[in-house]
Amino acid sequence: MEDKFVSERNLKFLLHEVLAAEDLSRLAHFQDHDRQDLDMMLNTALRISEEMLFPAFREMDQQTPKLDQGQVRVHPLAREFMRQSGEGGWIAATFSYDEGGLQIPTVLDTACQFVFMAANLAAAAYPGLTKGAAHLLLSYGSEELKQTYVPPMIAGEWQGTMALTEPQAGSSLSDLTVSAQPSEEGHYLISGQKIFISAGDHDGVDNVVHLMLARIKGAPAGVKGISLFVVPKLRPEGGGLLPNDLHTAGLFHKLGYRGCPIVQLSMGEAGDCRGWLLGKPNQGLSYMFQMMNEARISVGLQAAAVASGAYYASLKYALEREQGRPVESKDPNQPPVAIIRHPDVKRLLLFQRAVVEGSLALLMQVSLYADLAVHGGEQDKQRAAQLLDLLTPVAKSYPAEMGIASTSAGLQILGGYGYTEEFPLEQYFRDMRIHAIHEGTTGIQALDLLGRKVRLHGGRALEAFEQEVRSTMEAAEGVGELAGYAVDLGQALELLRRATTAKLSLMGQGRVAQALADACLYLEMFGLAAVAWQWLKQGVTAAQAVAKGITGGEAAFYQGKLATMRYFFHYELPKSQGLARRLLEDDALTVDLPPEYFAD
Amino acid sequence: MEDKFVSERNLKFLLHEVLAAEDLSRLAHFQDHDRQDLDMMLNTALRISEEMLFPAFREMDQQTPKLDQGQVRVHPLAREFMRQSGEGGWIAATFSYDEGGLQIPTVLDTACQFVFMAANLAAAAYPGLTKGAAHLLLSYGSEELKQTYVPPMIAGEWQGTMALTEPQAGSSLSDLTVSAQPSEEGHYLISGQKIFISAGDHDGVDNVVHLMLARIKGAPAGVKGISLFVVPKLRPEGGGLLPNDLHTAGLFHKLGYRGCPIVQLSMGEAGDCRGWLLGKPNQGLSYMFQMMNEARISVGLQAAAVASGAYYASLKYALEREQGRPVESKDPNQPPVAIIRHPDVKRLLLFQRAVVEGSLALLMQVSLYADLAVHGGEQDKQRAAQLLDLLTPVAKSYPAEMGIASTSAGLQILGGYGYTEEFPLEQYFRDMRIHAIHEGTTGIQALDLLGRKVRLHGGRALEAFEQEVRSTMEAAEGVGELAGYAVDLGQALELLRRATTAKLSLMGQGRVAQALADACLYLEMFGLAAVAWQWLKQGVTAAQAVAKGITGGEAAFYQGKLATMRYFFHYELPKSQGLARRLLEDDALTVDLPPEYFAD
Lengths: 600, 600
Hints:
By secondary structure, chain A is an alpha+beta fold. Chain A contains 19 helices and 12 strands. In chain A, a hairpin with a 2-residue loop joins strand 8 and strand 9.
């Protein structure tokens, strides 16, 4: 088997056979993008990834960013890929023509980004972050700000970032303290510190543009007093770029994701760090949430992509490594077999594949909702927006959490070799661990889901989700062996509904802490149901293809899909039962427990 | 909170209150060791760990071993701690007086080793490996071999190792090819390669003694043709030490466990690597299994110890880091609270603590069986040996697998900081990942448990285990709130029995591959039942102490125990239900699946 990090066949299966993405070309906004056009773009992403990104995957981990006299120096691929992303139109791909973009559907962009990320997580982050920041500028910036900042960003010449976190606040955005003092010239003077800023400084670009949350002097306490600013490293002035009193105060050394620098920034040490307000004062958090929701889906995609790279590395090893004999014929005079012949190795591989392809299917599904929410017909729009809203924490967290377990399973397949730097599994294992943390930890996603999303619009988003699942169940009922799996999915959906009702009832009684204490378990259960739905949906498509009597490699592909679906229903979905057991209890263990009980 | 890596209070709780280890002093072999004596030794281990091992924990990870002109160079603590372990009698602590030991009970030795390992996994490995090798020499070596090798080993001057794995064979010991050619002088000429040899070469000792598996020329194929040899790096000859044609061919660079070198060895490149047969020809594997079983329990202990270090680092952070407010009173004008006040953080801490203390309890329980199996009364001996045999794969794998999840949870508590090298969680996360791999992967342990152990002695070991669990259930039934947990444990035991019967029935039908395909799930379910048993046992002791009306810090300790027990029963044990769902199916997915289905 050649080195591989994604399955082109699977991406096209999801794009065309499961989601029928080419149907989007019926919508005015996407009319230029027929199936051939979508495939061409995906093929280009694959080629760039194979030729440029994947070969530097290990090297970027080893040659980590350095802080050298206040300037972060990174691997030359950062500059090379930023330029390529600008020239090829990748950064602005989903933007409209008048914004300098290509009006590509998000669902296709998701497929292409997945390829880049799977080939080289760190390299893909630079243009990815820039795109998010540019999109925010386009959404809320004045004409002047847009004209100044967006063109060099989408050309890949300037880096964009998202600067939220502060040392004292962490996940608690209401405690942000970076301050903004209005000046008479219209800009604000920014001062304070930000931490954990991805790509927050590097020498692969000519400037760095931070989309930064700060508090205007006198603003209300908490999240209601947060505003959004553009704060560049170098400020455009008189046709040139001047230092903006924004310094890199530190570079974090990290477990993984090492090819992309994460920095600490210090603003206004000399009292002259200038920022420009985006949109209205004190509305910063709601603006930032647009970018954050995109970023959360992007983090889910990164996790699925790392899991994909790990899966193909494990599969290659399992196909090539000969060791041991089948348990039923252990004759030592017979030659050993490839370890993929051992059922336990197949189980581990199926687990990896179920996580990778189940996560990707869910992420492409929500990306399709993102397209419909903005460009769909009037009827579709609202429903798609609600589904996107509801599923965003799930599409972020399921891949992030299960990706940790699935890369660990992949490492296990290689045994002792998996623990060494001779094989890439140890890097995938390290790279994976960030996704459950950044852009909102799993705990934050869980509170968002159970504390906000399931109650939004009077619970209509959740109802819409249940309808989507049921329509897949109905399709499956007509397809021979799938009927039983439709029943299993129905039971999982019923457990989820019961858990939801139980928790909402606690909230109704004002027992909010108790209602939310096990939000992470609820999120996990929701993830199992959502991914089971995506697996059944893929199963229906595959079973229909098999029924047509396809043979050869294509038949093996569809049978592999069906086997992985079966794996998910037999090994993963039953975990809902243990979760339901807890979620349906009314027991306040973690709420009532006094911290003193942790002494000793 | 001061820096901490183990709980002295918990160790004494397990040793004295739960296991009543001082009762061992009624046995002739242990008569010199009363409670005071046991405590003195444990206190010494704690002091050495605090003063010598823990301060170098991070440094040994950063200053990794180097291969320099064929010699591995390691951190100076390796030499220092080997000497200390020799002088303090730690290496030979459990050996009999006439073997140069202290006749310490294994259960105490386990507690002390846990302390060393939690303080510094890598440093503790050097004497730990030496002890295992010395024990094997004492068990099967000739007088001459014992007198030559054991004294410098237990003095900490020579390193002992266990040299099994070969590049082409991995877990498949029947494919070992290192060869041994008899010579006329009585020794054998060894040639071939070994890989993944922990502490296989370093400059912290004056010699390295490998207990090595090899195949005598003409021996039968498979495991029946494997013999055990002593193969030193330098051979004692004429009062000096001569090179033995044994070379370090490579040093592995690893994800974690970096302070201890893992090497590749090459024997007999010049045709003069001499080895001495231990015991009889072709009996090597059964001899090695004595050491391997000890080593497996030791690996479980290492995993529990790393999880312990991680737990206390997370707990310290959670107590000191202030961030956010309770969900029911989010007033941003109120100061933030320590994150340990958030229920989700408490849940993560309880998970860590449940894994650490549940694993340690099980490991100390099997260590007590190890003492009774050798030195107990006639009635106890056989039963204890069977329980030890049965539980060894569980006591190795539960800590190894759940330790990955629990250190990951610990890292999560620190958020972004957990992912950086500023805090030790990232190291614990890396160090932890080895334990599910070495000394037999989790897959190998699962085959050992389901394929051999539950059937041994006509199933009597499993019956003895069920009796032990039931006697704890009976004790719990008399203790107020614990009665319900006894019922839960009974149900888990019943599920385990049903799964066992189902799998043994498949074996009886000759469907061995199908019976063993989900052995890892069976092992996981067994681990949940075994650790739930240990938690209920601790719960009974704690509830009895509380009932006596204890107050203050001691009361908080017992209440913390009870809370952690409740956590285990509410959050962990219910996972048995999902596992049972799969284990009770007769579905051959992973057996039948052809590798071709993984194409694409």
